[in-house]
Amino acid sequence: MANKLDISLHEASLSIVRRCGADLCEIIDSKFGCVATIEGVENESRTSYLQPPATIKPERRYEFTMRSGVKVSVWKADLTSFLADAVVNAANEDLNHCGGLALALSKAGGPQIQMESADYIRKHGKLQTGEAVALGPGSLPCRKIIHAVGPYLPPNPPKYDISKAKPFLEKAIKSILDKVDKFHLVTVAIPAISSGLFNYPLPECAHTIEMERACNWIFGSQQKQTYSN
């Protein structure tokens, strides 16, 4: 940001921020377009942007190491608190984090995530299906959030629609891995992009992600760790 202002809190204002800090941050963001962070105050409000609570204890379900040296792990975990160099967000083309995983990451990481995303769209335009961009993580415990746009399908899609969408999902995974290389990231947590709100059937989604990721790293000889959530 271009300007930064530090404000000390005393007595009544300190009490208000302690009770309503998260709501205050949202109001400042929506009304003035400014990112507010609260330091040194225990936040008693409904949401803490500084320390988002972990709702799921990470549980590793499966792991294997490919011939290239890449370790692939499958986890049941909460991406808002998962420890990796980068977490991947299943984003829409406008980077408007209004639902699903995108909303959860945006809430946990604070208003700066949505603000940086909106600023990117203003400068560069919408992302296309299959594209990805790496932006700041806000207060999440990672170095980058990689926002990736997977294909959208209608509810209960027929096999024909799935086959048409598959190349776009493969492109999205390749775009993610390109960002991993560009920013020299060692570990990346990738969810089942396009499943859920985008209606891509989960089994086909998981298979496509793993095959594209494996092929990309086998032929690229990348030395990375990757996690599926």
TrEMBL record:
SMART domains: A1pp
Pfam family, one: Macro
SUPFAM superfamilies listed in its UniProt record: Macro domain-like
Hydrolase as UniProt keyword: no
Any one Gene Ontology BP term: positive regulation of type II interferon-mediated signaling pathway
GO annotations of cellular component type: cytoplasm; nucleus
MF (Gene Ontology): NAD+ poly-ADP-ribosyltransferase activity; NAD+-protein mono-ADP-ribosyltransferase activity; transcription corepressor activity; ubiquitin-like protein ligase binding
Full protein name: Poly(ADP-ribose) polymerase family member 9
Organism of this sequence: Poecilia latipinna
